[in-house]
Amino acid sequence: MNHHPTLLPFLLLFVSAGFAYSLPNIIVFFADNLGYNDIGAFSSTCTNTDTKTPNIDKLASEGIKLKNWNSAAALCSASRAALLTGKYPVRTGVFPGVFKTDAENGLSPDEITIAEYLKEKGYATSIIGKWHLGQREEYLPTNQGFDEWYGIPYHMSGGSIDSHLCGYDIDGTIWLPLFEGTHIIEQPVDLTNLAQRYASRGREFIRKNIEQNKPFFLYFPFSHVHQLCSPQLSTCQWASSQFSKNSPNASFYDAVEEMDWITGEIIRQLDESNVANQTLVLFTSDNGPWLAEQSCSGSKGPFTGKWFLDHAPSDCTACPHDYDPSPTLDRPHRCIFQGEDKLWEIDGVSCGEDVGLGSCWEANVIMPGIARWPGHIPSGTETYEMVSTLDVMPTILTLTDNTPRDVLDGMNILPILYQDSDRVVSDDRILFFWRDGFQEGPLPSPYGRYDVVAAKLGRIKAWIYTKSSHYNLDKEVYHDPPLLFDVLSDPAEAYPLDPADYSDVIEEILWKIKEHKDSITWGNPLTISRDPMYLPCYNRKTNCRSHFGSGLDAIE
């Protein structure tokens, strides 16, 4: 028998590498308030001629486009909780509204996140970007299963930066912080190079774990493309100096292109490390565009909510955040923000046009969804099978041979991603859409109550209550029988179906809504309690600043 001792090191390396990569690496990109139409691969040329997203488009061409990806919640905190837990936010208490900058609570440490499950399997876990599930130390990512975190604890309108002061920051102490782990390392954050630092951290995390032969989970919830705080709408978007000559001020398109560049940098590291074939990459958005912010936000694309536009009260105005309606005869949609020494004015939009963030119309429900895993997911494919942000958790658990220790609302969508020829294509899955903003209810104003306003059974969407986004003044309208749309053939929700032709569908949807609501064990809503003492602050002796810049005056 011939022995080949020179092959032994190679065989050991092969076995070692095979063992390490029996568990795939996982990257989840999660954009902030990005519309379906804001990505080139999903947009119509007749509605989007401005946004350039070559890296995300390439990702889509190398994998599958999930063209019926449904957000699990109407707002940011709830959507993030749903992704990380696989549960409707009503089950985790992440309602109503979002966690404010001075929130007392956060996502309960009793909840088991994707990161915690994966750590049990030996994964390195990292989050880079926006958290928005509680800014107090006990609720931060490193206490929720992540080994490391580099990012901002909430949305980009949560504090002032140099040269862009928030109207509510009267004392000049509420500065937007950058965290590393549990520590504030920069306040206010420098946005002229934040994107480059995000990308560098992501690339370093990948390299480090490849060198250590360790599978990794990188959760990348972008801080893009959420706008900055009011009232300075002329400088409401942001990007680095690499993408905007007026950095940190930028256009919405600058912000999207910077987000695309970050995505490309992370994917490039996979290629350079030769692990693209061992890495599942998912890309989607938490919610749709904040349409009342107008040029500061994205496009609703084909999801115009046409029926609602035609039926909403014409005298109702949707204003940018922190502005209030103040109509005049010649400006029926005038909005104002009363500053300390200045009255800010802008024209808002009609409530009928405000069908994005904060609502359950399709502009805030259908997200761009991409999955890429070379050798497993066929490239250049697309599907209209209904999937949800809720599905990320159970899919990853199945992929990593994990057993959930709680009942999940999502489902494993690997057969859809793989486009298995023998999979059962179901048209009877149901999704429920919850929101607040009711005129009455047990919650304090403006929340009213948290309730199911719509549900989808396959391609049929049934509206129980219709209303515009957020806390606009239009009262919710109850529909009995439900208002029905075939949202695959009518994404604009323009042409209601005759309920007489769908009596069986209505009966099934109403029964399933009741069954779903009966399954809820109601707890205390976690987002309401607040206290200024919980505002993140680097050092109160320096007015919560870690450094002093030169541009502290608000831009007119």
Features:
disordered C terminus; disordered N terminus; 556 residues; 11 helices; alpha/beta
Structural summary, described in words:
21% of the residues lie in helices and 19% in strands. With 556 residues, it is an alpha/beta fold. A hairpin with a 2-residue loop joins strand 5 (178-180) and strand 6 (183-186). Helix 6 (194-211) runs parallel beside helix 7. The chain is globular and about 60 Å long. It starts with 7 loop residues before the first helix and ends in a 38-residue tail after the last helix.
Chart the SSEs and their pairings.
Elements: H1 8-20, E1 25-31, H2 54-61, E2 64-70, H3 76-85, H4 89-92, H5 114-120, E3 124-128, E4 148-151, E5 178-180, E6 183-186, H6 194-211, E7 216-221, E8 237-238, E9 249-250, H7 252-272, E10 279-285, H8 306-311, E11 317-318, E12 324-325, E13 334-338, E14 343-347, E15 349-350, E16 366-372, E17 381-383, E18 387-388, H9 392-399, H10 414-418, E19 430-435, E20 451-457, E21 460-466, E22 477-486, H11 503-518
Parallel strand pairs: 1-7, 1-10, 2-17, 2-18, 3-4, 3-7
Antiparallel strand pairs: 2-16, 4-5, 5-6, 8-9, 10-16, 11-15, 12-13, 13-14, 19-20, 20-21, 21-22
Describe the global form: globular
How far apart the termini lie comes to 85 Å
Mean pLDDT: 92
Strand content: 15-25%
Rg of Cα set: 23 Å
Summing up helix and strand content along with how strands pair, one would put the structural category as alpha/beta
Number of helical segments with 4 or more residues = 11
Q: Provide the low-confidence segments as ranges.
A: 1-21, 550-556
Q: In percent, how helical is the residue content? A: 10-25%
| Number of strand elements | 22
Biggest sheet: strands, sense, closure?
11 strands, mixed
